[in-house]
Amino acid sequence: SETPKSLEPVKDYSSPKTAGFISDKEVTDYQEKVLEVNTEKWLNIIHDHTFPTQYAPMYIQEAELIVAVYERLYKNLDAPSIAGINWREKLSPEESELVRKMESRLQNVMDGFLKSESDYVFVKTSSRSAKDAPMAQENFKELYEQFLSEEAEDVRGTENTQITCLLKAAFRAMRVRSAAMVMDMVMRSERIYQDMLLALEFKEKFHENFVVRAFVDIDVDMEFRGFVFAGSLVALSQYNYLIYSPRLVEQKDALQAKILTFFHDTLKPKLDSSNFEKAFIIDFAVGSKDEKLWVIEINPFLTTTDAALFSWEHERHLLEGKEGFQFRINTRPKPGARTMLPHSIKALLSV
């Protein structure tokens, strides 16, 4: 799931709990598909084309602690309530020691990337990031207000500008230098809680890591979600689909050509020769400084992975390449984008 991307939808459809799975077999099938595209599966194949990455192992008792803390303190609470509860004060001495060891192991790996004051990392678990957590932390509002203050006064009041600044704040909030900050996000994240629950249901297959990646600045309009079916890139969408970007409209054709060439000439031969999955969802980014194309991550080709500007329900045929290559972006500000934000985030727009 990734250099961080769009703000969480109201309902997190990437959770097996909300995806309507009923039988153990369905959950097992889901988990296997997720595991097939975990970072560990694809990173070595295309390591030259994604962010420099190292792993810090996570152990079963640590995953159990993450689940226990979330259930004890945060389950069913909204983001402002979560932000107000300090989980560190609620740990037993044994739990505090477990956290200390986890943070020490993680910080050792992070320090390998932090050679100067300007270096940062992004940390996720094997399947997804804690990108829902910054909104449950105090500094998110400050970041949002900082980005908004940098915009021209005449556009600060527009919904499109405000949502763009929210996305920038969410992205920046994931930029870290300390394992303690990572742990704070992990403990407050419903996404991570759900993933650990699932991982612990199959303890004999448990294989989770903290995935530590060099943080690369990406503009929020320069991330794209690609759909690969039968080994071909058949559809592409603006990732942060609540915003309109004039430069994205202007550069659409050039970006399409660049990404298609990158996938078919550079990535596909490497993936094919490694017998990688033939259907998956791949996220691309264009670097802010050098316009280099990066692979952010690969996700399972499942309806639980957000289809961005496409619809799994009504347009699956397009995502399977039945009508040729498709590339969707917003060509004008999206009406009602604000209503698609979580309630706790909408509250920020009124400040």
UniProtKB/TrEMBL annotation:
InterPro entries: CDC123. Belongs to the CDC123 family. It comes from the Eukaryota. This is Cell division cycle protein 123.
